[in-house]
Write a structure and sequence with these properties.
single chain; Immunoglobulin-like; rod-shaped; 6-stranded mixed sheet; 52 strands; 36% strand; mainly beta
Length: 742
Amino acid sequence: MILTANSNLSLFQAFGDVAGVSSWNSLSNNGEQIILTDNLGNVVDSLTYDKSWYQSSDKADGGWSIEQINPTPSCIGAHNWSSSSDPKGGTPGKQNAIYDPSPDIIAPEVNALQVINDTTLQINFNETMDTSTLIDSNFSLSSGVSVLNITVANQLGTEVYIHLTEKFEAGLVHGIRLSNVMDCAGNAIEDITLDFLVGASPNLYDLIITEIMAAPSPSQGLPEVEYLELYNPSNKVLSIAGTILADAINTTILDDYSLWPNEYLILTPNSTAHQFDAFGQVLGVSNWVSLNNSEDKLSLFNSQGELIYTVSYSDAWYRSSIKSDGGFSLEMIDPTFPCLEESNWTASESTAGGSPGKINSVDNSNPDLLGPKLVQAIAINASTIQLRFNEKLNTSAIQPSHFSGSLDLSFIAMAMNEDERSLQLTTDNDLVENTVYEITANSISDCSGNLIRESDNAIDLIIAAEAKPRDIVINEILFNPKSGGARFVEIYNNSTNYINLSGWSLAGLTNSRILTEENLFMPPSTYYTITNDASVLSSQYPNAQSDTFIKLTSMPSLPSDEGQVSLINPSQIEIDAFSYNEDYHSPLLSDLKGISLERIKFSGQSEDPNNWFSASSTEYSATPGYENSQSRSREVQTGEISVAPLVFSPESSNGANFVTINYSFQTPGNTLNIKIVDAEGRMILELGQNVIAGKEGFLTWNGTTHQGSKARIGYYMVLLEIISPTGEIRYSKNKVVVGTQF
């Protein structure tokens, strides 16, 4: 009997008996439930079909009927149906083309095993099952987890849920064994073990970046596209789903992918992923993070936002200026030590420019055998310090108790920074200004597990003081260098304080230069030399102390004849200034190139021409980074007036080529008249007239006469007329000898 819509009766009369149905309900192509009832409403037969019953994707598209195989089966269900084999597409009104009354002697099969969650599995069978065999004892797990209960989802028993007593471990392959499970005809499924797993969410260093193609042009043979290579060094199958890839600015979320242990995965933009199919496993990435050629920071985070891996590369890591220009990837040398940075990366040695999806071309043993070194300690504020190490640390095991400080300094809290090589400590008491603490790190290891050595676990923490004007003074300047030479300015800490030069600047006549943005502490009584060419300065002045050099890209404007130089702190307060002039040099010098002007006394005024003189030729005419050849700061004042040295030679190369006339009064405001007379009482020079003197100070005589010529060898008298603020006049006479060099 054929059933069809009333309107279609004539179409099927040639095929057999036909009954027309009013209000015919169209049959869905995708499947639905059909129920046949009698006139009393009793269900005669029913079925629920779907497209899978065709067992042919081509025939499921249309033009073919679904036919029952055996009209008197032991079991009902999809296994007893299939698409018609009749050339017309169906057999209405007669025996089905696929009719087969043979009994069911074929064992059931598992169509699918699906992990619903970490305590529930779903199994689908290909035919109607004997539900009495779908019991707990017929299902067992290889991992030792027990079956809690079984839920049969439908009357046919084709869909079963296995609920477990506890969670199975993600990232490992587990097995579920089926035994004594039968279909409704009594055919037992062969005892089988089905494997299943759920990829584990990656933890720290479970997933690492082992190759970076940031500059793919010009291509050496690879697709001209940026890519990253991921590697799974763990013993777990990892689920990449939800993993966050980030550079220094942008982030993107990776699609699902299961990466097995010791396997590689190429990441590249979605639009170009097909270009890497020949190289290995590939995962296209939406919203690709563009890789900077010169430097960038790349990080992986799991779906919980926890750090998996991070690397901050630069073009210096290529170790080749040619390869850093493009076409070659950066490759990790030894993935066993993933937290090593520059020392564990280099340019690819592959002729293709990289080795995506396989072992790197530079793969080699590169063990990390040394523990970390504590390289910096700085104060962030009065109760917080920051420590920096030379490599990444094992952050999981660090506690505040691992750190101690001298002067009873201890710490109550700690926070690791994102770079994993620096951290912040909170002190129990406020730090004291102008104090040096020794900070010690104990039982700290790097991320490779190496313990810090005693030789590397301590460093000074300097708490700097606020500098006042003239705490640091300009001590020496070379403004007229030799041909091909370098200018420099030397500064000296004339205070008893530690001073931080971070953010300080050196100003010239028309511009200024920042000395450093980093912390740079200047201890008391020390020198720093500011220059833009350290190598030239060292070669022209062999005694130069290179460890005092502050290297600038360029110096501020320092004209070769006269100008001004100023030292300015971050608050734009002028700490010291000097208006120099080539006339301050010894008048006996014929060539001033390459000769510095040196400060004579730290206590003297920077703007006093008498406090400056030409550097001695015995010191190659400059003393960058150490005590000035003309320094008189160590001289001790005796009495109201003193002269030193008592013997000098204006043309000497040993430094004693001028004399200082030093004064020290009880009260300021005295007026001085200074004359130099020879042994016969003749005045050869009026050194100063109506000089208003402070309580302390000095003047210099370079051994020349009022005519500018060198005084003759012999005895001379320095005559001072001192007029007090009340008008009282007194005199001082001091003998000096002008000598010569032989």
